[in-house]
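Predict the assembly for these two chains.
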Amino acid sequence: MNILELRNISKSWGGNKALRDVSMEMESGIVGIVGPNGAGKTTLVNIIAGQNQASSGKVFYKGTDITSLPSYRRARMGIVKTFQVVRPFRSLTVRENVELFSKVRSQSNSEDILKITGMENFQDRFPVELPFGLLKKLEIAKALSANPDLLLLDEPFGGLGKDDIEKLSKFILDIKEIGKHMVIVEHKISALLPLVDKIVLLDRGETKFDGSVSEFKANEKIGELYFGGIINAGN
Amino acid sequence: MKIKPIHFLSRGYMISIFLVLLTAVVSIVIRSPFLTLSLTISDIFILLALAWDFSSGTTNYINFGISFFFGVGVFATGYFYYSFHLPVPLLFIMSTVFGILAGLVFTIPTVRVRGVFFTLLSLLLPLIGTSFILAFWTVLGMPTIGYFDIVQISKSPEVSLIYVSVLILVVLTLIYVVNSTHFGLVLKGIGDDESALVTQGVNSFPYKVVIFSVSMGIAGLAGAIYAMTTTFAGVDAFGLEFLLYPMVIAILGGKGKILGAIPAGYLIILMSQYLQQYVGDLTLMLFAALAIFLFLFLPKGISGWYK
């Protein structure tokens, strides 16, 4: 059974069509969504998370139609999203940020989450005291504490330097190891490709590519058109 | 997950308890009717400030309707005393229950909207409620001007103050315990970033309904104390001062910092009681100006100053 399936998703903002008949199937692992600015990547992830409603089309999660469910109900079913711009709860400590979501599904263990994410030494600090790289990790730690099956990461590498990207990449693979599935929206294609099992390319709201990483890399036309050959250079 | 221990020996909590008890002791030792009345009035406004801060201070849903729920408590006390001659403890309970019920009626439709829309509704719905009560008061066979000679908490003002102090300590402890639990974390989360909270799996609506209803119940309780202190329940219970002073106290104490309301409450109300003797009705204007000053220059109140 597919963990996630999108059928003919369209979304309009006023007169602008942000997404046009986007369909996608995800069995397991990590799916990367790439594309130029304004391609509709974040809109698509927001629709999966229930933060925005699709104008038309259906979203299925583990075979269940979740199109009309609000975001908190989807999170309780196991779909949790992180934000492009980090949004920690600023009046709460790192530990409290994590504990906040520990009752969303089955009781998760905040201690374990702090340990897995390497935040245990910072648990009594407030977000304002953390460097940007750790705030990115906190964003993922918050999401993990809701015990998701499907994690939606919106530009996790945005604003990070090379070292932090490497650390976060390793961390994402560790999360995959513990059985979490992920959809990652990312601009930094060279950092994304080693992580994902499947790639979806969006442009102006339409699906231009949907296939394996090897097929994606082999497609010279896409490489030149969208990434100036960077697909292979990055690997 | 480990259950977080509640630290009843925390400095802020202990100082607050000490201040409340100190006022009761000072009143017994000095035996000045003016001071005892001023301290009782201070406690009433502190309860209102705690009620306001418990819900609006933590969630950032700014509620301008608290004076309505205070008025509900005042009128409920008058009604149940006149109609059923209920004893003082039951009058406290009934006014709290009516505050909670009015809070539910107010909260369920209003907390679905945020920001300025909620604030506007918090102003308009109580206005409708007040107009409704006043319009139908005589139709329902109630006294036109209000209820006089309501029972006092105790014949001795000092003993009354002790009862009121105990009620404050109960409410303070309730708020302190709630804020130390997961429920309290969610309330702070609503105040920080509600949409992120909801997206990540917490349905904020029931939390808001509960917290605003309980807070309005506390406002109703404050109304009962007021009615039994002044022995009168009338239209003035819906007055602007029952919104302005609690907000000034809560902001001076530090919005969302529940314990700051205690010292701020005694400071503000004792000052206003003394100022009232010299400048009369201008006192309210002076405190409105103080509210503006606090909003502009000391938004974190004395707790921010202390840091």
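Residues 151 and 182 of chain A are 5 Å apart (CA to CA). The interface with chain B takes residues 49-51, 70-73, 75-76, 80-81, 83, 87, 89-92, 96, 99-105, 107-111, 142-143, 146 of chain A (CB under 8 Å).
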